[in-house]
Amino acid sequence: MRYTDTKLFIGGEWTDASDGKTLEIANPVNGEVIGAVAHASRSDLEKAVEAVVEGFNIWSATSAFERYKVIRKAASLLRERVEDIARLLTTDEGKPLTESRMEVNSCADLLDWFAEEGRRTYGRVVPSRSVTVQQYALKEPVGPAVGFTPWNFPMSQIVRKLGPALSAGCSIIIKGPEEAPAAPAALFRCLEEAGIPAGVVNLVFGNPAEISEFLVPHPAIRKVSFTGSVPVGKKLASLAGLHMKRVTMELGGHAPVIIADDANIDAATTALIGSKYRNAGQVCISPTRFLIQSTVHDQFVESFVRKAEALKVGDGLADGTQMGPLINERRRNAVEELIEDAVSKGAKLETGGERIGNSGYFFAPTVLTGVTTEMRALNEEPFGPVALVRSFADLDEALAEANRLPFGLGSYAWTTSSNTARRIAHGIQAGMVSVNHVGLGLPETPYGGVKDSGYGYEGGSEALDAYTNIRFVTHETN
Predict the structure, then answer these.
(1) 351 SS3 class
(2) Active site residues
(3) Cβ contacts of residue 224 below 8 Å, gap of 6+?
(4) pLDDT exceeds cutoff 90 at 458
(5) From residue 341, how far is each of 82, 255, 348 by CA, in Å?
(6) Going by C-beta distance under 8 Å and a sequence separation of 6 or more, which residues neighbour residue 48?
(7) pTM score, whole prediction
(8) pLDDT value at position 1?
(9) Which end of the chain is more exposed for a tag (fewer CB within 10 A), N or C?
(10) How is 167-192 classified by DSSP, letter by letter?
(11) pLDDT (tens digit, 9 = 90+) per residue, 123-160?
(12) Is 37 helix (H, G, I), strand (E, B) or coil?
């Protein structure tokens, strides 16, 4: 699939911005401009709202079974085009081609799951207190929705909003990621070719603040979903709350990893290397705060550092690449600043901590030990290839550190003790806990956080609940 400029998709038509404005797209491998994406104007957003309202009128009146067939067909088209779409995704965002293939296939799996689950969005009959009264609860689509999605998973984060919305009978406007627009556009082409009616799905790009300030309070929009930073999420949730809009917020994290002294260290480091450096650490559920029981601390560090240094960093399109570049210079600078702050305050740089090459935004897989709470990195989400390691004496100390921050998205633990696993599962304040493996993000499982990491879920049956209203009907017969 050849890389082409990305247009807006509004009311079933691909179109340039009404004022012709575009944004440049740069390849993170070398920083070179490779294309452009249309920048929506106020006029374009108004057209998108008109389209999404018309789309809702059509889609909400379409049976769940017919919706299911369209969504499943789009999933099949994604699988047929996985190689072409994965190359677009890697070209835009930088992750290795193997990871891009996984993301495209996961989108197909998500669409399949939501399509099936939409056929089972049941109401219920409530037994009445009189033989002449019937009473029942209905689930109905909440209305036109808007979803704001990030660049780190430019397709799957869209599908986690679009999938449940479509299966519930809602129409939606997606504000896609300007840094990585090509793969999202390919997703919408699959939906278009699958037979989605005009206006049911709409894709816009542009200034995030301008788009959110117009769409979130718009009276036609009844549901808001956002994935991104905590500060922006709080702002959008507040804006939605002023207008009584339902929200789903999947916000930042700073995932703790608790390694008990009875853990299988080799199995833990093997799994965590892949999870930590996936997408160059630019993952909201990436393990970041490695809390290691003191008796196995050195063993863990030796194993983890050795495996980190063995990773092949390079162009995501090249064979054998295991970690690609960061998305842009701004992200690379932010990672460098956190590392410099930590080292200046006493952290030990075990490996990495430096740029790789003179082209693009490559950064070495990094491990810091001896980190303390005075360091910015242990308080701010690194969102990069940085593992922060500190030791603990007992489990109470580990849980206290794991729960110290306002974040509560993903969390991990390794232990062979069922009692320790149970204490961690119940004691850690996070929306998701994975013990002895990396098992977060499957379509059928809840995906979301607590505390400042968000509100609501974008996986499992819970994801559809956010796009439905429950209406109670009571009827007395003559």
Answers:
(1) strand
(2) 250, 284
(3) 145, 146, 147, 148, 216, 236, 237, 240, 245, 246, 247, 248
(4) yes
(5) 41, 20, 11
(6) 8, 10, 11, 40, 173, 202, 204
(7) 0.96
(8) 58
(9) C
(10) HHT--EEEE--TTS-HHHHHHHHHHH
(11) 999 999 999 999 999 999 999 999 999 999 999 999 99
(12) strand
Q: Residue 29 corresponds to which amino acid? A: V
Give the span between the Cα atoms of 256 and 176, in whole angstroms: 29
The domains located in the chain, with CATH, are 8-251+453-473 (3.40.605.10), 255-443 (3.40.309.10)
Q: How far apart are the C-alpha atoms of 206 and 41, rounded to whole Å? A: 8
11: left (phi over 0), alpha (psi -120 to 50) or beta: left
| pLDDT tens digits, one per residue of 344-400 | 999 999 999 999 998 999 999 999 999 999 999 999 999 999 999 999 999 999 999
Nearest one of 364, 359, 407, 360 to 384, comparing CA atoms: 364
Maximum separation of any 2 CA atoms in the chain, in Å? 82
Backbone torsions φ then ψ of 200, nearest 5 degrees: -70, -40
DSSP3 helix / strand / coil % (the chain, rounded to 5)? 40, 20, 40
* The pair of three-digit structure tokens given for residue 12, joined into one six-digit string: 């079933």
**Which residues are bridge partners to 139 per DSSP?**
470
- Residue 122 tokens read as 């049941």
Count of alpha carbons within 13 Å of 52, Cβ hemisphere only? Answer: 31
Q: Tell me, what amino acid is at 337? A: E
| Contact (CB, 8 A) for 456 and 160 | no
**If you ran DSSP here, which 8-state letter would residue 377 be given?**
G
**What's 263's DSSP letter?**
S
**Token couple for 432:** 């998701």
Q: What is the pLDDT of residue 4?
A: 87
What's the pLDDT at 89? 97
Q: Which two tokens stand for residue 224?
A: 């808001």
Fill in the amino acid letter for 18: S
Residues in contact with 216: Cβ distance below 8 Å, sequence separation at least 6, in sequence order: 146, 224, 236, 239, 240, 243, 245
Find the helix or strand (DSSP H, E) in which 227 lies: strand 223-227
Q: Dig out the tokens for 133 from the structure.
A: 């009264």
Query: Distance (Å, rounded) from C-alpha 107 to C-alpha 111?
Result: 6
Token pair 């740069």: residue: 26
Q: Please report how many Cα atoms fall inside a 13 Å half-sphere around the Cα of residue 48, on the Cβ side.
A: 31
DSSP 8-state code for residue 313: B
Q: How many C-beta atoms surround the C-beta of residue 145 within 10 A?
A: 30
Give just the sign of the alpha carbon dihedral 183, 198, 140, 452: positive
Burial class of residue 122 (count of CB atoms within 10 Å of its CB; 0-12, 13-18, 19+):
exposed
Buried b (16+ CB within 10 A) or exposed e, 331-369: bbeebbebbeebbeeebeebbbbeebeeebbbbbbbbbb
Contact 121, 199 (CB under 8 A): no
